[in-house]
TrEMBL record:
EC number from the UniProt entry: 2.5.1.7
Active-site residues, record numbering mapped to chain: 117
Primary enzyme class: transferase
SUPFAM superfamilies per record: EPT/RTPC-like (SSF55205)
Biological or metabolic pathway of the protein: Cell wall biogenesis; peptidoglycan biosynthesis
Residues binding UDP-N-acetyl-alpha-D-glucosamine, per UniProt: 93, 122-126, 305, 327
Family matches, as NCBIfam families: murA, PRK09369.1, PRK12830.1
GO MF term list: UDP-N-acetylglucosamine 1-carboxyvinyltransferase activity
Name of the protein described by the UniProt record: UDP-N-acetylglucosamine 1-carboxyvinyltransferase
Length: 423
């Protein structure tokens, strides 16, 4: 077991380069199964969720090889079956994309219900509704799901809830379905567009990704491709908040500023200065952090995956901020950890009331999930004295080289082995 040890109180400064988007990559790797030849995927983030996706592909018989640290060559033509290895699928949320990809490619799949961060119940009923509309039969026994069809037929699907996973999964299943599929009330996150662009680069015919309606003309065959994954909106946002929270001056580079607009707008309201360049944003803060009310919403609203980081920064704002979680039922579990540092936050259901305090002090903190873990790192960077962050495996699911990137910005952070306690 490892932990991060942080001596806080130093403003971050310098430049940090953002890696490829986790939530695009965990969909594009399974989507390669739809290809009919080897694919080269660039800008793949070096994170543990990608190690798992790669292991699933390899266990299923695909030839997977790293060309460089962030470039993967994947040949799906050697895949042997349609069963997704159970133990690997349970380790991550994005494994649900193997269902849509294998259904789209082979008309059948058997997989485990997925793992991932614990925000309460994370249903996949909208994914299943979409598969069934395309003519598939779905069976669930325990936590194993079987989906199969004689032939997928294009259909009109209206999602009852805006879901990132259901939008991408049903889009993947539909690319080779007979006829036209229309998906309505879909999610519009940047990674939806990236997955659609990837599939189109293979020869799919998908239009409208990034709007409320996606139209897919089924094609008979898909080819092969070379494709670069977009930069990670949430990793970029996390460094932006870390810069503002520590009163620093950081150039976050290799980003698409348009994807960061809601984060930028809220940082400016909170007293930071944000300057946009073509492929970078600079975040500076000199004055006090201002209170700020935020509600998380599907894109283009403020992303739920940035909520813990922003709430953490606002613990030292002047005044009271109200944070409303509009996507997940239970995404404030980390607040108990912040209280250990002296933060004054009261949670009532999906609302947190953050009364700003003067300073945070160091302490021992647990990462309860991925972004909560990133928020604990930000808390440690802001706090006086030393903080220890435990359960960092959650953080390493989604942040490439977080320690070296922060050290390059002047942070005093180390990754250390925990010595097991004697009984
Ligand atoms: C691997 C990945 O990309 N994970 C992201 C993805 O998760 P994920 O794809 O699981 O999230 P969804 O967008 O599907 O979930 C949004 C909301 O819809 C509900 N819902 C979803 C599907 C369904 O079939 N039925 C249903 O009721 C969920 O409970 C939740 O309240 O989008 C979330 C929302 O931006 C992010 O927090 C996650 O980081
Ligand atoms: C919640 C997240 O990931 P997952 O859906 O993979 O658990 C996230 O990326 O913040």
């Amino acid at each position: 077991m490892e932990k991060f040890v942080i001596r806080g109180g130093k403003p971050l400064s310098g430049e940090v380069n953002v890696s490829g988007a986790k939530n695009a990559a965990v969909a594009i790797l399974p989507a390669v199964l739809l290809a009919e030849g080897p694919c080269l995927i660039e800008n793949v983030p070096a994170i543990s969720d990608i190690d798992i996706s790669k292991d699933i592909l390899a266990a299923m018989g695909a030839q997977v090889e790293y060309i460089t640290k962030n470039t993967l060559s994947i040949d799906p033509t050697t895949v042997l079956g349609t069963d997704v290895p159970y133990a690997l699928a349970k380790k991550m949320r994005g494994s649900y994309y193997f269902i849509g990809a294998l259904l789209g490619r082979y008309n059948q799949v058997c997989a485990a219900l997925p793992g991932g961060c614990d925000f309460g119940i994370r249903p996949i009923d909208q994914h299943l509704k979409g598969f069934e509309a395309l003519g598939a039969q779905v069976g669930i026994e325990g936590d194993i799901i079987h989906v199969s069809a004689d032939q997928l037929i294009g259909a009109h699907v209206y999602f009852d809830i805006v879901s990132v996973g259901a939008t991408i999964n049903v889009m993947m299943a539909a690319v080779k379905a007979q006829g036209v599929t229309i998906l309505e009330n879909v999610a519009k996150e940047p990674h939806i567009v990236d997955v659609a662009n990837f599939l189109n680069s293979l020869g799919a015919d998908i239009r409208g990704a990034g709007t409320d309606v996606i139209k897919i003309h089924g094609v008979e065959k898909l080819g092969r491709t070379e494709y670069g994954i977009i930069p990670d909106q949430i990793e970029a946002g996390t460094y932006m908040v870390a810069a503002a929270a520590t009163g620093g001056d950081v150039l976050v580079s290799g980003v698409i500023p348009k994807h960061l607009e809601s984060i930028t707008a809220n940082l400016i309201r909170a007293g930071a200065q944000v300057t946009e360049y073509d492929e970078a944003v600079r975040v500076q803060r000199e004055g006090p952090i201002q209170k700020c009310n935020i509600k998380t919403l599907p894109h283009p609203g403020f992303p739920t995956d940035m909520q813990p980081q922003m709430t953490t920064m606002l613990t030292v704002a002047e005044g009271t901020s109200i944070i409303t979680e509009g996507v997940w039922d239970n995404r404030f579990a980390y607040v108990e950890e912040l209280k250990k540092l002296g933060a004054n936050v009261q949670v009532d259901g999906q609302v947190a009331v953050v009364d700003g305090v003067d300073r945070l002090h160091g302490g021992v903190l647990r990462s309860v999930d991925l972004r909560a873990g990133a928020a604990m790192v930000i808390a440690g960077l802001m706090a006086d004295g030393i903080s220890e962050i435990e359960d960092i495996r959650h953080i390493e699911r989604g942040y490439e080289d977080i320690v070296s990137k922060l050290r390059d910005l002047g942070a005093d952070i180390r990754r250390v082995e925990c010595v097991p306690q004697k009984q």
